[in-house]
Design brief:
Main location: cytoplasm
EC number: 1.3.1.98
Catalytic activity: UDP-N-acetyl-alpha-D-muramate + NADP(+) = UDP-N-acetyl-3-O-(1-carboxyvinyl)-alpha-D-glucosamine + NADPH + H(+)
Number of helices: 9
Structural class: alpha+beta
Strand order of the largest sheet: 6-7-13-11-12
Bound molecules: flavin-adenine dinucleotide
Low-confidence stretches: none
Mean pLDDT: 97
CATH topology of the largest domain: Uridine Diphospho-n-acetylenolpyruvylglucosamine Reductase, domain 3
Pathway: Cell wall biogenesis; peptidoglycan biosynthesis
Subcellular location: Cytoplasm
């Protein structure tokens, strides 16, 4: 890594928020991934300065939220990882609208909505991502998705300039948006909900939490649903019907509780997970003629 780059980085971001050779397994819910050359947690306007610095020194960067939809390679990530974190005060509720920083957890945002008697975000309370990652993925569950509640998003473009995009401009679809394609970084979002009853909102959140605990292997590290839902099918059912329940590669395993999840039984490597995913997709295709596409984003060097 260019020393001059590191020196200038320390001038724009506090040194205690810069980490070198940082194991990415500490920053992903899969608990898998080799070291990032540098991981930085910029605050506020520091982000634009960091982006400009990366451009000046031609250093590649990768943005992450809570790492809950990521498989990072065992050899880690060259260049910079920008981890988006937001402080508690980056949620502002006004009437039925919430303005929130990209680094805020969905669960915290949904809880704040409930506190203010705002309904519409219950679906997101159990999704372990941050707002930025949820916008990128158009995260959704139990009949709701980010598309239903987003009105606008603030982003930084590759030059570090701020833009405001309306929900329509985000091209939100099933687990997709235009953010990655355009190389934007989400810095904040505006969400519109409806007035409701806090007790009913909390009851719905509890009910959905119960369903997750019952059906999902939350006791193991994972990245949630490993594959996207193919049209007309359920990935988990196809995998189960292919006889792959509990299928193991190293310490990566098709969950016995929910075949749509690949879990890390302890010390799985990214190579284990990737091989398992390829084998599963091949076997399912051979049996049913349906190709499973990963929902999990693979980044870094494998
Ligand atoms: C147990 C479990 C259950 C889950 N259940 C669900 C579910 O019900 N529904 C669902 O949709 N998902 C689910 N997921 C997957 C995951 O939580 C979501 O995809 C979530 O939205 C990812 O957010 P994140 O902050 O963790 O993003 P990350 O995983 O860190 O990143 C995801 C992608 O977004 C990009 N990104 C992240 N932040 C930004 C930003 N600020 N600007 C630009 N790009 C950014 C990253 O580069 C990456 O490409 C689950 C995962 C787990 C582990």
């Amino acid at each position: 890594m260019n020393q001059q780059f590191l020196t200038e980085l320390k001038a724009v971001t506090a040194e205690n928020r810069i980490f070198t050779d940082e194991p990415m397994k500490k920053h992903t819910t899969f608990r898998v991934g080799g070291p990032a050359d540098i991981l930085v947690q910029p605050k506020g306007t520091e982000l634009a300065a960091v982006i400009r610095l990366c451009r000046k020194y031609d250093v590649p960067y990768q943005v992450i939220g809570n790492g809950s939809n990521l498989l990072v390679g065992d050899r880690g990530i060259r260049g910079l990882v920008i981890e988006m974190l937001s402080k508690e005060d980056e949620i502002c509720v006004e009437d039925d609208c919430i303005t929130v920083g990209a680094g805020m957890l969905l669960s915290k945002t949904a809880n704040r909505a409930a506190e203010h008697g705002l309904t519409g975000m219950e679906f997101a309370a159990g999704i372990p991502g941050r707002i930025g990652g949820a916008v990128v993925m158009n995260a959704g569950a139990y009949g709701g998705e980010m598309k239903d509640i987003l009105t606008a998003v603030t982003v930084l473009d590759q030059e570090g300039n701020e833009k405001i995009l309306s929900a329509e401009e985000l091209e939100l679809g099933y687990r997709t948006s235009c953010i990655l394609k355009k190389g934007y970084i989400v810095t904040g979002a505006k969400i519109k909900l409806k007035h409701g009853e806090e007790t009913a909102i909390r009851a719905r959140m509890e009910e959905l939490k119960k369903q997750r605990v019952e059906k999902q292997p939350l006791e193991y590290p994972s990245a949630g649903s490993t594959f996207k839902r193919p049209e007309g099918y359920f990935a988990g059912k196809l995998i189960m019907d292919a006889g792959l329940r509990g299928y193991l590669v190293g310490e990566a395993q098709v969950s016995e509780k929910h075949c749509g999840f690949v879990i890390n039984r302890g010390n799985a490597t990214a190579a284990d997970v990737r091989t398992l995913m390829q084998n599963v997709a091949d076997i399912v295709e051979e049996k049913f003629g349906v190709r499973l596409e990963p929902e999990v984003k693979m980044i870094g060097e494998f």
